[in-house]
Amino acid sequence: MRADAARNLSTVLRTGARLLAEDPSTSMAAIAAAAGVDRTTVHRRFANREALLHAVFQAKLDSAERVLDEARLTEAPVPVALHRYVEGIIPVSREWPLDTRRMMQKDPETRTRRETQSERLNVFIRRAVDEGYLRADVDAAWTRAVLDQLVDSIAHQFPSVDPPQAADLVADTFLRGFGTA
Predict the structure, then answer these.
(1) 179 phi and psi, to 5 degrees?
(2) If we measure between CA atoms, which residue out of 127, 162, 165, 161 comes closest to residue 143?
(3) Between 166 and which of 5, 47, 64, 154 could a Cys-Cys bridge form, CB atoms 3.0 to 4.6 Å apart?
């Protein structure tokens, strides 16, 4: 793919993610206009809005996969891995604001990838409990749900907070709220 075509694709995907998060009925023409490309450019690459949506979700899952790998959830000390994960996932959440649960009913590939990524975080939470960083008397599913909500809140309700500072806030709140100390 030529460099300009790759840039156009990236712009269309990011613009599509933002506009479809705001309004799921956004037209392909509106996405093309907001991305600054011709409508035929978008239609040549994506047959319809569902195809574009699928590509957006795959791009988000690709980004999340990189964050999970870079956080080293199974090797790094728990507080370090938590901070790395949060610092990395906040920009992903901001750049790709669509909720992947929306696509899970329609696309088995998306569902499988998201469930696999989710399980990696569940394993991390269990590790944090086993190593004494998180309370064992609190349901792990609740602990995980709160982590997800903290990340979502800081990413979208406080967009001016930069990722390192946001990770500090989330990790501190999470570890103090569910921690054993």
Answers:
(1) -70, 170
(2) 127
(3) 154
